[in-house]
Design brief:
- This protein has 170 residues and is mostly helical.
- The chain has one domain.
- It is built from seven helices and two strands.
- The protein has a two-stranded antiparallel ribbon.
- α2 runs antiparallel to α4 and α4 runs antiparallel to α5.
- The longest helix is centred in the first third of the chain and has 25 residues.
- The protein is elongated.
- 26% of the residues are buried.
Length: 170
């Protein structure tokens, strides 16, 4: 179910028909915007209160104290950068790879505290002032798995509608 494209003297195997369907670019746009806006909003909310973000990062009890503080101070700005790049559609595949790895780290962190019976405020979207409950972990994990699926889609099909990548490199 593949097509052959003759480009002069060389022949290139084209993508299967479903991969060329116009809906693929729209799905890519949706994945880019969902992941990008999520990263941008989460990063901004965390950056507004860095000391609380550092405290939330330490609460996972995974990284050494000083490293957790550094990561808590840097993470919001990494998320903002990923969000801006994804919304613009610039360096989409690389940003999706790095964003997907970050999402895997978040999934591991939430799973770890849940498995160890530690009840914390995950700080995923800043500190919202709500009392933490273990019941929230399943929703945090489902959200992060959904975002990981968006990242995986963009790694496989990075070209999408209204993207800087497509405008610059076709």
């Amino acid at each position: 179910m593949t097509e052959q494209i003759d480009s002069g003297s060389s022949s290139v195997v084209a993508r299967t028909r479903w991969q060329q369907h116009p809906a693929m670019e729209w799905i890519g746009l949706a994945a880019r915007l969902i992941l990008g806006i999520t990263y941008l909003v989460a990063g901004i909310l965390k950056a507004r209160e860095l000391s609380l973000t550092q405290m939330d990062t330490r609460a996972f009890q995974i990284l050494p104290y000083d490293l957790a503080n550094i990561w808590g101070a840097v993470m919001p700005f990494v998320e903002i950068l990923f969000g801006l790049l994804l919304i613009a559609g610039l360096m989409t595949r690389m940003t999706a790879i790095l964003g997907g790895l970050l999402m895997i780290a978040f999934i591991i962190g939430i799973s770890s505290v849940w498995a160890r019976g530690i009840v914390i405020q995950c700080g995923c979207f800043g500190n919202n002032g709500k009392l933490p409950t273990t019941a929230a972990y399943k929703w945090d994990l489902l959200r992060d798995v959904g975002l990981l699926i968006c990242a995986a889609w963009l790694v496989s099909w990075p070209r999408s509608r209204f993207s800087a990548d497509k405008a610059l490199w076709g």
